[in-house]
Every structure is written in structure tokens, then in C-alpha cells.
Amino acid sequence: MVFTFLSYVRNVRPEARLTYYLVTIINAIAALAYLTMALGGATMKGHNSVRQFEWIRYAAWALQAPLTVFILGLLSGAHWVDLIWVSFAALVGIAGGFAGAVSGGFNATWPLFAFAAFTFLPVFIALAFTFRRAAYKVHPEIGKLYDVVAFGSLLTYAGYAITWGVSEGGYITTVDQEVIIYTALDITTKVIFGFTLIYARESIARYGSFLGHLNTGVDFDFPIARSTYTGSASNYASEPTPAVVFGQQRDLAFAQLHAATNTGLTAKSA
């Protein structure tokens, strides 16, 4: 409910609002999964046909993991091809983990887990290198924000893999211990991740990008005094709807706006 409310009250253009909506969807999926588990309708037998596990987690992860890496790609300004590739790699990795949890084949659990881990390799490369490099090309502030959320995500993904190994894989932990660990990881990767992005909105608005295109002052969700606008940039301060400036006048307006608001637009990104 909180994420839904914040998605509507932020005064940003639809492109900039996409991150808000995606964060809300991720947490809504988590809420549905936990409600289903609380009502007792999401268990099935594991590969030894004795120990149960919550299958609804995998259904939720199959949607949440691609959305999470997609958001990180949007934040970094990565190319849309990389976003699609990494999102589907994450989806296949989750499917591999589910197959390992339910497979009754002889010694099938760990080969399937190895397959899932290998499939997640493109996700690791993208989050640790490809997306990170793109984020710092957009702006150092975006790079710093990306480092926080991306490396935090990588650490929690490693936590998921270890937890899977000692629970669905090796049956070392009890079901209750498994649920507690997974819940802590889910809160970190969904709730804390979401609030970190939403409350970093000023940095994203000033320096961020959308599919590789720099945001401009018209995307700011915090007030800019009319006195900061000069020249053709004053067209953006008109009421009730900011005027649209095209071509060279648009470029001049953007340059003057960033200069007037000290947003540090570099010559390379300009």
C-alpha cells in the first residue's frame, strides 16, 4: 500500500515513474506469495518426497528476479538488449532452482542447481560489470547509487543460493529455519531495495537516465524556482503545462537548465 501510494504522489513523467511502478509490482508479488503461504495453500513435496517446501516462492521469484535486474538496468542506462538478455537469464535460473527442488531423478538435485547457477552467470556479469560501467558513464552520482543497490542485490542472491543448498538441496535446515532465512532475504531484496530507490529520487531525477537517455529538468519531482530558468529554458516554467521545445532550442534549454541548477551535466554526456 505504501509503495502504491508513493507511485501516485510523485510528480514525475511516466518514463521516470516506471521505476516506482516496478518496485510496487515486486512488493505486491511478495505480499501475494506470503499471504498464500500464510493461508497454507503453497506447499508441495521436495525431491525426497518427505520434506515439504513452499512452491509459491519460486512463482514469485520467477517474476521478481527479472523485474529487479530490469530496474537495475534502467537505473544504469544500459542498452535494452542487455536488459532483456539478463532478465530472461534470471528467469531461467529460477526455473533451474525449482527443477532441482522437485526433481526425483537419481542424483538430479545438484546438477540442476549447477545449471541454475551457471544460468545466473550473465546476471552476475551484468550487475558487477556491464550495468555498473553504464551507470558511471551516465553520472558518478548514479554510479554510487547503483553500487549500493546492485552489490547489495548480488550479496543477497548469494544468500539465496546458500540457503537453497542447505534447505531444498541438502535438507540441513528445518523448514522453519528455511522460512525465516528466506523471509529476511525477501525483505532486503524487495522492501529495502524499493525504498532505497524511491528515496534516491532526487539523484535519479537530476542525473539519471531512461534506457540510455539523460533525464532533464522536466523530470524533476522537486520544485525548481522560476528564477533559475534563463533564455529558452523559461519555456519549461510555463503554467499549467510546460511548453515543449524542439531541436537546437531544446538542447540550449537543457544546457541552460542544468547550468542554472548546478546539476553537473558533463560535456561528454551532453
What is the secondary structure topology, with strand pairs?
Blueprint: H1 2-9, H2 14-38, E1 43-45, E2 52-54, H3 56-76, H4 80-102, H5 109-119, H6 121-138, H7 140-169, H8 175-198, H9 201-207, E3 209-210, E4 213-214, H10 247-261
Antiparallel strand pairs: 1-2, 3-4
Helix pairs in contact: 1-2, 2-3, 2-8, 3-4, 3-6, 4-5, 4-6, 6-7, 7-8
What this model shows, in words?
This protein has 270 residues and is mostly helical. The protein has two domains: 206 residues, Rhopdopsin 7-helix transmembrane proteins (Up-down Bundle), CATH 1.20.1070.10; 48 residues, no CATH class. Helix content is 67%, strand content 4%. The strands form two sheets. A two-stranded antiparallel ribbon has the order 1-2. The chain has a two-stranded antiparallel ribbon with strand order 3-4. A hairpin with a 6-residue loop joins β1 and β2. The longest helix has 30 residues.
Give the full name of the CATH homologous superfamily of the largest domain: Rhodopsin 7-helix transmembrane proteins
Q: Ranges with pLDDT <50 over ≥5 residues?
A: 214-251, 265-270
- How much of the sequence is in beta strands? under 5%
Radius of gyration: 22 Å
- Beta-strand segment tally: 4
Amino-to-carboxy terminus distance: 38 Å
Oligomer: single chain
Query: Can you tell me the CATH topology of the largest domain?
Result: Rhopdopsin 7-helix transmembrane proteins
- Mind telling me the CATH class of the largest domain? Mainly Alpha
How large is the count of helical segments?
10
Helix content: 55-70%
- Largest beta sheet, briefly? 2 strands, antiparallel
What is the H/E string?
HHEEHHHHHHHEEH
How many domain regions? 2
CATH architecture of the largest domain: Up-down Bundle
How are the strands of the biggest sheet laid out side by side? 1-2
Overall 3D shape: globular
* Mean pLDDT across every amino acid position: 77
- What structural class should be given to the helix and strand makeup? mainly alpha
